[in-house]
Specification:
The protein is built from four helices and no strands. By secondary structure, the chain is an all-alpha fold.
């Protein structure tokens, strides 16, 4: 498949297009965005910000969620055991 896109398309214009999709297609976009985010490795700055958030967390459940986000962000994909 040959994919071509308009290089002038910005994130803002893409978001505006998504707003006009039928709900079922919006749901597919949301699912894709979550999947893409879960697979992406984070930058050092993003990992540092999460580490700071984890150390400041007073709720153990929040700290656990942030710890999982750090593992996902470091390795990409599902957290490692």
């Amino acid at each position: 498949m040959d994919f071509r896109y308009d290089v002038r398309m910005t994130a803002t214009s893409i978001i505006e297009e998504i707003k006009h999709l039928p709900p079922a297609e919006q749901a597919q976009v949301i699912q894709f965005a979550y999947h893409l985010d879960a697979e992406r490795k984070l930058t050092g700055q993003e990992l540092s910000a999460l580490a700071e958030r984890m150390t400041r967390a007073t709720n153990p459940a929040e700290a656990a969620l942030v710890r999982e986000a750090i593992a996902r962000g470091f390795y990409g994909g599902a957290p490692r055991a």
